[in-house]
Amino acid sequence: MRKQSEMNKAALPDYKVRRVWVVVEYQCGTRKSISRMYLSGVWKVQKRKARRFLERAVVIMKTGEFRILGTVLLTEIYSIWSIEQAFIQRGYRAWGGECLAIPLVFIGFYRILGWLSEELYIRLHNGEGYE
C-alpha cells in the first residue's frame, strides 16, 4: 500500500507558486478600526481640522477668564481629593496640612495654564508671540 502523503502528491498536479502583491489603500486601518488610523489624503484633511480646532482653543485659552476658571476647577478637584485622603488617613474630619497646600496648587495650576496657552500660541503661529 502507498502512504497517504505519496497519494496526495500523485493526485495533485504540479503548479508554480507565484507571489502577488496587492496594494490597496483604505481610509482607515481596518473597517472596524477602534484607533481610526487615517492614511495619506484623509490624514491631511484631519490634520487641517485639528489645527483649526487648536487655533480656536488657543484664542479661548488666552483669555484671563479661562485661565482663572480652569485653575479654580483644577484646584477644586485637588482639594476634594486631598481632604478625602486626609480623612482616610486620620479616620475623622479635620482641617490640617492639606489646606496649606491648596493655595500653592492654585498658583502652580495658574502658571502652568498660562505657560501652556503661550506655548501653543507660539507653535501655531510659527514662533510669533503675543502681547
Topology:
Layout: H1 4-11, H2 40-62, H3 64-90, H4 97-124
What does it look like?
There is one protein chain. The longest helix has 28 residues, at about 95-125. About 65% of the residues lie in helices and about 0% in strands. It has four helices and no strands. Helix 2 packs across helix 4 (about 95-125). The chain is an all-alpha fold and about 130 residues long. The protein has helices at about 5-10, 40-60, 65-90, 95-125. The model has no long low-confidence stretch (mean pLDDT about 75).
Features:
mainly alpha; 66% helix; 131 residues; 4 helices; flat
Percent strand equals under 5%
Low-confidence stretches: none
Got a strand count?
0
Determine the mean pLDDT: 76
Helix content: 55-70%
Alpha carbon gap, first and last residue? 94 Å
Spell the H/E element sequence: HHHH
Biggest beta sheet summary: none
Number of helical elements? 4
> Taking Cα atoms only, what radius of gyration do you get, to the nearest Å?
30 Å
| Structural class by SSE content | mainly alpha
Shape: flat
What's the oligomerization state? single chain
